[in-house]
């Protein structure tokens, strides 16, 4: 099988598996991260496109958020899938490493990604977490987890550890302050930083409007 056939088989597998997912971690999130990653890669040097495309597509194949917090579920599922397609072990190890480290782990926790492929997938994934799509995904996630949209009596927290972030149950609006508004300053690539500016502004404007409507006063 050629590399492009492996990428296409992976895309098709995800399309079937995540077609009806309703928490914002659906096939179209994976598709957009794949497209954004290829776009960002155009302005970067020495990118291994095969690893990049596989990682972008597979980064949420078994997210810890939907597997009882099991951080190894993603790397394990990606390995199983790629081994079934006889992908080189070195490529699989790289994909596993990025999946392990790409997830946001708390406001005060540094993202440990050293390879260009990992950094591009990070920026593509975080771009899809902000802007209009990001707002939509966040409310879809909150609904899927049965959380209140907003509670003015519960303050946002800047988490110091992944454990604390993982166990947090805060209302959906707090997620903007605990993660989404921080993302523009955590981008690694030039393109990621540029694209994040406008999407950040869209969220700020949305929050201002949302909070002004919240208590029902005109
Ligand atoms: P990450 O790996 O950084 O968590 P994902 O691709 O898994 O990124 O998607 C994270 C998205 O899921 C967030 O941007 C948001 O839309 C949604 N999400 C995650 N946690 C929460 C939360 N506590 N409240 C609301 N939405 C959330
Ligand atoms: Ni993602």
Give a verbal description of the structure.
The model has no long low-confidence stretch (mean pLDDT 97). The chain is globular, with a radius of gyration of 17 Å. It is mainly alpha-helical and 218 residues long. It starts with a helix and ends in a 5-residue tail after the last helix. Helix 1 packs antiparallel against helix 2, helix 3 runs parallel beside helix 6 and helix 5 packs across helix 6. It is 59% helix and 0% strand. The structure holds adenosine-5'-diphosphate (ADP) and nickel (II) ion. The site of adenosine-5'-diphosphate has 16 residues, from helix 7 and helix 9.
- Overall number of strands: 0
- Counted by DSSP, the helix tally is 10
Beta-strand residue fraction: under 5%
Structural classification:
mainly alpha
Q: How far apart lie the N and C ends?
A: 62 Å
Helix-strand pattern, N to C?
HHHHHHHHHH
> What is the radius of gyration?
17 Å
Percent helix range: 55-70%
The main sheet comes to: none
Mean pLDDT: 97
Spans of at least 5 consecutive residues with low confidence: none
Bound molecules: adenosine-5'-diphosphate, nickel (II) ion
Name the overall outline: globular
């Amino acid at each position: 099988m050629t590399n492009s056939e492996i990428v296409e088989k992976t895309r098709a597998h995800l399309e079937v598996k995540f077609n009806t997912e309703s928490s914002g971690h659906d096939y179209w999130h994976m598709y957009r991260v794949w497209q954004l990653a290829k776009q960002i890669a155009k302005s970067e040097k020495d990118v291994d496109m095969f690893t990049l495309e596989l990682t972008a597509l597979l980064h949420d194949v078994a997210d810890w958020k939907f597997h009882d917090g099991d951080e190894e579920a993603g790397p394990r599922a990606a390995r199983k899938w790629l081994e079934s397609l006889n992908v080189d072990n070195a490529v699989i190890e790289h994909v596993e490493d990025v999946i392990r480290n790409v997830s946001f782990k708390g406001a005060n926790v540094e993202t440990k990604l050293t390879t260009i492929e990992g950094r591009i997938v990070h920026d593509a994934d975080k771009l899809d977490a902000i802007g209009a799509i990001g707002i939509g995904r966040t409310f879809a996630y909150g609904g899927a987890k049965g959380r209140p949209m907003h509670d003015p009596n519960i303050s946002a927290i800047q988490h110091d550890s992944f454990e604390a972030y993982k166990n947090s149950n805060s209302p959906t609006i707090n997620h903007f302050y605990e993660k989404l508004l921080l993302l523009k300053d955590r981008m690694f690539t030039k393109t990621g930083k540029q694209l994040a500016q406008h999407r950040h502004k869209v969220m700020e404007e949305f929050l201002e409007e949302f909070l002004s409507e919240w208590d029902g006063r005109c």
